[in-house]
Amino acid sequence: MGLTLSFAQAFRAGIPVSTAEIPLSAAKHRVCPELRCLLMVRKREQTRIRSESTSTGNASVLDGILKSRQGCRRSWLASFFGESCGAPDSATRKMSAIRVSRLRVTQWALMRGMGYGMRPSLERTFRVRHYECDAYEMVYYTNYLRYIQEAAMDASADVGFDPAWYAASGTSWLVRETEVEYHRLLRYGDSVRVKTWVEDFRHAMSRRAYELREDSSGELVARAATEWVYLDTAKGKPARIPEAFKEKFFPDGPPPEPEKRARFPEHPVPEQGVFRQRRRVEWRDIDPAQHVNNSVYLAYAEDSAVEASMAAGWTPARMREQGFTIQVRRHRIEYKLPAVLGDDLEIATWLSDVGENSVTRDYTMTRLSDGVLLARALAELEWVDAQSGKAVPIPPPYRSAIGS
User: Fold this and answer.
1) What angle do CA 173, 198, 335 make, to 5 degrees?
2) Residues 133, 139, 145: CA angle, nearest 5 degrees
3) What would you report as the CA-atom Rg of the chain, rounded to the nearest whole angstrom?
4) Helical H runs in 161-293?
5) What is the rounded distance in angstroms from the CA atom of residue 39 to the CA atom of residue 99?
6) For residues 311 and 6, is the Cβ–Cβ distance under 8 A?
7) Cα separations (Å) of 30 from 19, 38, 84, 117, 283?
8) What is the pLDDT of residues 293-345, one digit of tens each?
């Protein structure tokens, strides 16, 4: 599979490329197809770039951008989003100084160079409703999952696989795992544009990626990915994905074989410091698939987190009085078995990986009747100033309350 365009060739041709902030988790899990291509090209072309660019230093600059910065949760990578970078590092500033900052290799050229063409994507815009916002006037995190779920369903219907098709075929898709990384929280009155595309098909599983941007400004709101399982509805078991899906979603040929997915992190339940909440699955939690909708598990998690904080003496009102709030930077949820109407659940939550201004909150959701684990989740939390929104250290009184 030969390359028709290298980065060094792009430099000489003057094809514009800008740099953008891409989460380190995206580099690990390849949330977007463009990033996948970049990493593959870098692996093949790095030696050539260095040898051809010694005189100008371009290779070291590009290498600095492609590597994640030490001690930082983000990587600076050449990307295709055309947005300006906030707080650029020295490599980015040097890149601008030597006039190679406009290095935008087009998505078409790079993907064609990798041996396969453009894949269908769909964009849908949602206006934030007032009832979708919480007491902080921010959109509830559960609604981000609803936005991407709606976009996924529309994208499937757009290429011919609508609800009627699935009903006739006796198949459906079930979410196995969801991950969302938040960059900017939405407010009432915002409109969010969701772009989605399929990353791969693997036997009975498929990964779909999403990018959310504020519609008027184009500012990045979030990136997300879902792992879907293709099911035989009658049997309730995974089924092999038909070739028709691959033909529709990858009309110019399949992408490279995907790398093995990172496993859900193991954070064992500690002996102390666990808050437990019981709740019954209600009618409003059930979706047309006759089980709890995947977004509702996140609502369960959010509710238990607030209750746990209040039990430790920190109500939302007290936090605001003290001048800080807690924001989620990343959610990850693994769905193991569905909960159904009338199930009694126990949601357990605890804190781990406590840092200077961040902490991980872990969750398990268990069916009480038989003790079966139905789902588990984690939230990466960050303490921020209530006015500026900038990160601040965890206040000592709060540390004392959580035993850290």
Assistant:
1) 40
2) 125
3) 23
4) 163-169, 243-249
5) 23
6) no
7) 17, 10, 21, 18, 37
8) 999 999 999 999 999 999 999 999 999 999 999 999 999 999 999 999 999 99
Find the distance separating the first CA and the last CA of the chain, reported in whole Å: 53
Is the CA virtual torsion 393, 397, 398, 400 positive or negative? Answer: positive
Residue 194: phi and psi, rounded to 5, are -105, 120
Q: Residue 357: exposed, middle, or buried by beta-carbon count in 10 A (0-12, 13-18, 19+)?
A: middle
pLDDT tens digits for 226-280? Answer: 999 999 999 989 999 999 999 999 988 877 776 777 888 888 888 889 999 999 9
User: 177 - beta bridge partners?
Assistant: 227, 334
Which domains, and CATH codes, for the chain? 7-113 (no CATH), 119-251 (3.10.129.10), 263-404 (3.10.129.10)
Do strands 324-335 and 373-385 pair parallel, antiparallel, or not at all (unpaired)? antiparallel
Residue with tokens 């994640």: 68
Q: How many CB atoms lie within 10 A of CB 358?
A: 17
Mean pLDDT of 24-43: 46
Distance CA 44, CA 59 (A): 14
What the block records as the tokens of 193 is 């544009």
Residues 6 or more apart from 115 whose CB is under 8 A from it? 1, 2, 253
What distance in Å separates the CA atoms of residue 93 and residue 90, rounded to the nearest whole number? 5
pTM value surpassing 0.85: no
The CA distance from 220 to 211, in Å, is: 8
Residue 284 DSSP label = G
Residue corresponding to tokens 């902490």: 359
Could you tell me the two tokens for 80? 């295709």
- Structure-token pair, residue 88: 């650029």
Is 35 exposed, middle or buried, given 0-12, 13-18 or 19+ CB atoms closer than 10 A?
A: buried
Contact (Cβ atoms closer than 8 angstroms) between residue 337 and residue 272: no
Q: What would the two tokens of residue 175 be?
A: 């979410």
Bridge partners (DSSP) of residue 122 are 196
- Token readout for 30 is 């390849």
